[in-house]
Amino acid sequence: MASIAKEVLNYLGTWKFWKDFIIMTVGMFFGAAAVYYFLVPSKLIIGTISGLSIVLSQFIPIKVSLMIFIINAILLLLAWVLIGKEFGAKTVYTALILGPLMDVWEKIMPASKLAELRMASSMPINTLNSTSVMGDPWLDLICFVLMLSISQAILFNINASTGGLDIIAKIINKYTHLDLGLSVTIGGGLICCTAFFINPFHMVIIGLIGTWINGLVVDYFMASLNRKKRVCVIADEHEQIRKFIVGTLHRGCSLYPVTGGYSGKQQIEVEALLTKDEFAALMDFLKKNNIDSFTTAGNVSEVYGRWHHGSKLNV
């Protein structure tokens, strides 16, 4: 127990912890704004814990923000018992601050004030829903999905999560052995269906569509944030290129003997996995040094194993 406490204290004193702490707080600030301004006022029930909290708050006299806090606390306890330490301190932090951050947004700018401004404007938007910030369920849906997806992508990119539905998906994934993506869909769809108790049929359908779009947009943002370049360079100056990649870019590379199908010439192909900035630096290096090369590059959105985000070779 003492060794675990010491390990935790050592981690709390690192720059990585404080950097991730700031990123998680900013990411959740966006997520809280999405829920407070677009999900709660419009009463859209998207496949999230926030949506489930809206349903339950109609039957239990508790604020939505407090309901989110309670449900997330219960889910975190279940995750600790059923899954283990997978989520760690990051998920505990992000899951528990969503409700309080919604209260912060309420203090900064109440959603009711924005709804009044929208109704007072001359915007040709349906005003039947006087509490909605945008005044139209589809516009609320688009704004919510975009903001929440950005928040989720930011958190996933630093190995964190928003908790809630992610925990439910992990539990489904562990005990049914379904793919994680399908687990998210199942969990989100079940939550959406609870909206039948408080919303008309068409609103539930909008929620289901929103849940599906949310998954697509998160995948898009995640792919954009994590995109790497698989670069293959064939040139006589392969050793010069290798030294630049290893010594300047601090990345590893692989060397493969290749034979030209037309010329029959024996050459070495240098293959490396680089970020977009590193790829640009490599192309600039080839141009400045007048290296006659045959270069191909392709996008890679997922990397496993030894290549980690932000890691560099110690040279």
Summarize the structure.
The protein contains 12 helices and 4 strands, in the order ααααααααααβαββαβ.
What's the SSE blueprint?
Blueprint: H1 2-12, H2 15-42, H3 49-57, H4 64-82, H5 88-108, H6 111-120, H7 137-157, H8 165-176, H9 180-193, H10 201-226, E1 228-235, H11 238-248, E2 254-259, E3 266-274, H12 276-288, E4 293-300
What does this structure look like?
The protein is α+β, with helices and mostly antiparallel strands and 315 residues long. The chain has 2 domains: 2-225, no CATH class; 227-300, Alpha-Beta Plaits (2-Layer Sandwich), CATH 3.30.70.120. The chain is 62% helix and 10% strand. A 4-stranded antiparallel sheet has the order 2-3-1-4. A hairpin with a 6-residue loop joins strand 2 and strand 3.
Distance between the termini: 37 Å
Strand order, main sheet: write it out: 2-3-1-4
Spans where pLDDT lies below 50 across 5 or more residues = none
Order of SSEs, N→C?
HHHHHHHHHHEHEEHE
Radius of gyration: 24 Å
Share of helix, binned:
55-70%
Mean pLDDT, as a whole number?
78
Give the number of DSSP strands.
4
Please identify the structural class as seen in this structure: alpha+beta
Basic shape: elongated
Discrete helix count: 12
Instruction: Report on the biggest sheet.
Output: 4 strands, antiparallel
Characteristic terms for this protein:
single chain, 2 domains, Alpha-Beta Plaits, alpha+beta, 315 residues
